[in-house]
Amino acid sequence: KEKAFSLEEKAKELRKEGNFLEAAKFHLGASKLFGKMKYLKNQKWNLANYFCCKADYYCSNQEFEIARKNFLYAEKFFLSMGLKESAFYVASKAISMESKQIKDKVESLNRFIELMEILLEKYKDISNTKTYINNKIFYYYLKFKLYKKQGNYELAKFWIEKSYKESFKAFQIFKLEYFLKNAIFREHHYWNLNAKIQEARKDFLKAAEFYKKSAEVIEKFDKDKFLDVVANALNDGKVIGWFWDRFEFGPRALGHRSIIANPAYPNMKDIINKKIKFREEFRPFAPSVLEGFE
After folding, report:
1. What is the pTM of this model?
2. Residues 273, 62, 95, 228: what is their CA dihedral angle, to the nearest 10 degrees?
3. Contacts from 154-161 at CB under 8 Å and sequence distance 24+?
4. C-alpha span between 56 and 193 (Å, rounded)
């Protein structure tokens, strides 16, 4: 029993470090030991996380179809334990993996929205949970993006308003900074879109008023909290587009217009090359680092 729990804790540590394959092995080992002791709930939980770790590994290597299948296996195990919120979360990740396989961005967005509608209906009995509400708000945001891409600004305005207002409500319920951050940025999008609509109508004074409101919304965001959000995103292996203050020009970013990533992730160079810079393997981007951190 002690060894099984020890393997489980080691798996959690490895997963936090981004070592997904090793974490999967430890979860599998723990599940086997729990199975021998007839601790079925612990066995299933570790098997579910075994598949989650494998999915995370394949996702980080751009093998989205294999990742999707593993997330769906994890969903089944979580459902068999009655952990519907966890099942919903991994099912939403599976949807993301399917849509990522579609090269056309609009088609990919459409497919994600279609699948999310089905998923939200399937799990509507947990509609008051944090995970469900978060995905519902994200669904509203994607509807906004879709209609904006299609040039239907009125419908885009409807969905971004719904998204930011629901984010504020979620923040009031759960008191999580994540929801507040989303609410602020999406309200910023809302006023910005209103400004663009007025510009198209040649009502520049009204547009200027909306742009001012858009800027005022962003000023609500606490700078220290914003830096924490960026640091946490980098720690999670995400790539940040850094855009602030005056425009800069030159062969290298000087800090106002930059792509920031965490070099501790072994595959980060490939992610930036493939997904952001669209470079060939023989022509990688040239990053800049602080002196002493080469």
Report:
1. 0.77
2. -50
3. 154/197, 156/193, 157/190, 157/193, 157/194, 157/197, 160/186, 160/189, 160/190, 160/193, 161/190
4. 35
